[in-house]
Design goal:
296 residues, alpha+beta, Jelly Rolls, Arc Repressor Mutant, subunit A, 2 domains, 5-stranded antiparallel β-sheet, 4-stranded antiparallel β-sheet, 9 strands, 21% strand, transcription, DNA-binding, Homeodomain-like_sf
Length: 296
Amino acid sequence: MSVKIARMKNQSHKGLLFRSENIKILMQEDLYPEKFSKSNMIESKSSFNLLFLLSPNINLAAEDCGTKFLFKKNQYILHYSPEESMAELWTENQELLKYFQIQINYNYISNLINPDSNKESADILESMIRNNYIFLHKQTPPDMTVEMHMILREIVNYSKKGVMQKLFVEAKIIKLLILIFEQFNEKNTVEETPKTPSMIKKFVDENYHKNIKVEEIGKLIGINQNKIRKEFKAQYHMTVSDYIAELRMLKAKKLIINKEIMIKEIAIECGYEYVQNFTRAFKKKFGVSPEKLRTE
C-alpha cells in the first residue's frame, strides 16, 4: 500500500528550472503514467513560448485555437500569445508525457532583435508574432536538431545560481533562436539529402573537434545508433567515425605547418585526448608522423 501511495505522489514531476523577470523555464515529466497523463501549460500575456515535445504522441488543445494538435517525439513550436492563455497537453494509453517549456517576455525579445535596426530584424519579429515558427514543411511542426537537444540538456544540468545562471540561460536561449531561424530560412530549399544523415553531418561538422561518439548522438536525438550508422554510410559512403577522423586530419594538416603550435596542442585542438593516438592517426592518414612532416 505504502509503495503504491509513494508511486502516486511521484507520478508527476513539474519542475521550475529557472525564473527571472523576463524568462521562465519549466520541465514536465510524468514518471508513472497510468490510463493517461495530462498537464496544463500557461502562457502569460505578451509572451513567446518555446515548447519542446520530448515524448511521443502528445495531444495539445489551446484556448485560443479551435484545432487539436498531435505531436511526434522531438518536435517543437515557437508560439506567441498576446493574452494570457492555457493549453492542455495529454497522452493516452499509458504513454509518457514529457515536455520542456521556455517562456520569454515580448519586450525582452523585442530588445534583443531590435526591429527598428533593419528590415531583417523587423521581418523576424513580425514572423514570430504571426506564429510563422509553428509549422515547417507540409504544415508539420519542425523537428529538434541535435544541438537543440544538447542545449536543453545543458540547461537542465547547469548547477550555478544567481547572475551566472541568468547569463548562461540567456546565452542558450539566443542560441536556440538562432538555430530556429536558420532552420526556417532553409525551409524553402529542396532537401535531396535524407534528414537523418544530413542532420548528423551538420552536427559532426560543427563538433568534430570534441570527444563525440555515435552512441551519444543517438541518445540525444532519440534515433537508434545502428540506424544512424546505416543511413549515414548509405548517403555519404563512409562511416560516421571515418568522417570525424577525416575532418580532424584535414584540420591537423593545416595546423601542422605552423611550427609555433606544439604537436600536443594540435592533438587537443583536433579532438584527441592523447597525443599518441593523434600521431598514430596522422601517420596512418598521411604516411608520415606529424613531427617528421615538420622537418621536411
